[in-house]
Amino acid sequence: MFLKVLAIFLICVIPTLSLTFTIEPKRKTCFYEQLEASTNAHVDFQVVKGGDLMVSFRITDPIGRNTYTKIQFSTGTYNFRTNTEGIYSFCFDNSRSSFHQKEVTFNFESHKAGELKKKVEKSDFANYTDKKGEISGKQAAIELAGFLELLGEKVTEVHTLQTYLKAREKANRDTTESTNSRILWWSLFSTLLIVVGSITQIYYLKSIFMKRRSRI
Fold this sequence. Notes:
Layout: H1 2-12, E1 16-23, E2 28-35, E3 39-49, E4 55-60, E5 66-73, E6 75-81, E7 86-93, E8 102-112, H2 115-122, H3 137-215
Antiparallel strand pairs: 1-8, 2-7, 3-6, 3-8, 4-5, 4-7
């Protein structure tokens, strides 16, 4: 019995979509998702690499209305509940950048409210009654469904946080590597400049002494 309930929970854990992609300069990239009405959804994104780390983000419902818009930001988080069934678009716009492509991490999660509760109530567990008749399977199923939904949300929150931390780690690592590379090239350029300057001074002083000697 427990294994059946656990299987229902694993099937109904909030599905999560995680993507990392690049957007070329002056381009827009969109993703589309079919959602039912009364679906709870969560989106978050972060620009981890490229130029000023800024993009614009827009969510459009099946009717064409803008559900959410964020212009020129490096991070964004938004929770919403759908009112209309259909295809929702999630678009990232890099048209304001003329030269830099952007690398973006994007997470999307959705679940229909009460879906897990309905599945648990339809399971064999809802018809279970102990030998003494003291435990109602239906009541226990409702309580279990609430607990599993809460557990699923917490698991999803942990996954979202892990994804965010990985993106931040990658962004910080890229920044560190870029800084180290610039320091290395600047050090090499400074060293070369010093060597060239020293050689120039030596030849200049040598030419002065040679001219004086020729006059004598």
